[in-house]
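This part of the workshop introduces the protein records we will be handling. Each record describes a single protein and holds just a pair of labelled lines. Instead of coordinates, the fold is spelled out as a row of discrete tokens. To make this concrete, we reproduce a full record directly below:
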Amino acid sequence: MRSGTRSIGARLSALACALVLCAVLVSLGVWQLERREWKRDLIARVDARIAAAPAAPPGPAEWPTLSDSEIEYKHVIMTGHFSDGDALVQAVTARGGGFWVVAPFVTDAGFTVLVNRGFVPADRRADPRPADETVVTGLVRISELGGGFLRSNRPEAGRWYSRDVPAIAETLGATDVAPSYFVDADARPGAPGALPIGGLTVVSFPNSHLVYALTWFALAAMALFAGGLVFVKGRAAEPDDPARRGRATPA
């Protein structure tokens, strides 16, 4: 009798553990579905910003309250002129290795925005920047602080591995600079051989959350099946206990 009681307790414990594990796995699957909806909304918002007509970039009055998520990839247009100096930032693109050419752009509104003029191969030099007033269109990008490629920026040596706006602005002596963003310039129409090459912004948001959700749900089903199997097989393996089902009266 005691052996049967212990066996029932063990089977119930195993089934309870399976149910708890199943609940945890299902909750992870639901969370991934929620993340999928969030990612789809993000992609839709970014696509809308990129496709929208370009507007003025955020000015000094907006800088203190800017939210990265609200301005990244916004399509902007600026009129002004490039000031002296630029920074070559290490880059790897679909066109190979080389550098981003980042230069201060003084807008007619009176503030400065760092502009990534585009990509130049390591064995080539960028064309001279426009000397006169010019119009720049492009996408807002968020400052990349510190470095990249597992290396820290070395401003004193002119070695840049990320587009770190405050550090580059300070090194180039630019003032009144938008502190948290720069602009990736669009490709220049009618100048196929011009360097640097603009318009190489990669906009990619992997969305594998449905696969992750299905994986969690499958694991939940497996845990539930395993728990039920242990419970049923354990019951079938128990010795026949007449006291449990009522002792038969001998003839």
About this structure: The mean pLDDT is 88. The two ends are 24 Å apart (CA to CA).
